[in-house]
Design a protein that fits this description.
alpha/beta; 5-stranded parallel beta sheet; 12 helices; 7 strands
């Protein structure tokens, strides 16, 4: 009998393959993911999660939010975490049965403003990867969803950044507009501390947003120079993943640059000019247990 660990290892591999796929190859890992989610060992959990849920009604309500601008539609998620998990399960299964629908769905709700594959990757990063993470927790706990919070969530969010001041200020002002306190290292008093000591001193945060911007260049021996994020950004990314857990770190990628292979499977999304990244960031914050005032987001 296949163990849950084996199944989720295969599911994670399918998601990683989907994350790096192009328009010609995304169908294979997507169908593989759908097949794995329908594994007999997962049948009981799936039946419990999807009981009394109507995917078509959810999609119809979501479609009603569509405005005149491409990408303005928002998914009408219920407040209940298990219902959201169940609807996402049904949605991913629908993608696997009809990969063309994923293209249509991504264009409507995760429009990236670039190529079609950008929309597919946005769905993968912002919806499928968080779903797999939470679905695994649900199954491994025998369907008993553990409380995400043990106390009040701090509203302080650490922003890890490189030399792109515009990106840093844009994210900071957005978070502050949503009611959070943005912690930017150079704005804090030095107090005779080294950089790493300052990071540690201000790491009493509940969440970190990491900006990957093409500030440096690097290469493997014999290869051509490629844009890379600054080394301090990668160091602090690893630090906050270790301190807060991957579910409490969101990575925003601006421009073209190399993503370190060690971070394959970590949720990241493009900081697109159209601003779709804002919805993705709010969804990650909500999934991590923060209260999001969607009225502020829409204003």
């Amino acid at each position: 009998m296949t163990s849950f660990v084996d199944i989720f290892d295969q599911i994670n591999n399918a998601v990683i393959d989907l994350q790096s796929a192009n328009l010609q190859s995304y169908e294979r890992p997507l169908k593989s993911l759908g097949r794995l989610l329908r594994h007999p060992e997962l049948k009981a959990a799936n039946e419990t999660l999807s009981k009394d849920l109507d995917l078509q009604t959810f999609l119809s309500r979501s479609a009603e939010t569509r405005g005149s601008m491409v990408g303005s539609a928002r998914l009408a998620w219920p407040d209940d975490h298990e219902q959201t998990l169940g609807l996402t399960l049904l949605l991913v299964e629908k993608f696997a049965d009809n990969p063309d629908y994923l293209v249509q769905f991504g264009h409507s709700y995760f429009y990236s403003g670039v190529k079609i594959i950008g929309d597919i990757r946005a769905v993968t990063q912002q919806l499928i990867i968080p779903f797999v993470r939470d679905y695994k927790t649900y199954v491994m706990n025998h369907g008993k969803v553990q409380p995400r919070l043990t106390g009040a969530r701090s509203n302080k969010i650490f922003i890890v950044h490189g030399h792109d001041g515009e990106a840093r200020e844009t994210v900071a002002r957005f978070l502050e507009g949503m009611g959070f306190k943005a912690i930017i290292l150079h704005e804090q008093a030095n107090r005779g501390q080294t950089i790493i000591e300052k990071v540690e001193a201000h790491s009493d945060v509940s969440f970190a947003v990491v900006l990957l911007t093409p500030d440096d260049e690097g290469r493997s021996n014999g290869a051509k120079l490629e844009p890379r994020a600054r080394q301090n950004v990668l160091l602090e990314l690893g630090y906050f993943i270790g301190r807060l857990g991957r579910e409490n770190v969101c990575t925003l990628k601006r421009g073209e640059l190399e993503i370190p292979s060690d971070f394959a499977g970590v949720v990241w999304q493009s900081m697109d000019p159209a601003g779709a990244w804002k919805q993705g960031l709010c969804r990650e914050l909500a999934a991590a247990g923060h209260q999001i005032d969607w009225n502020k987001f829409a204003s």
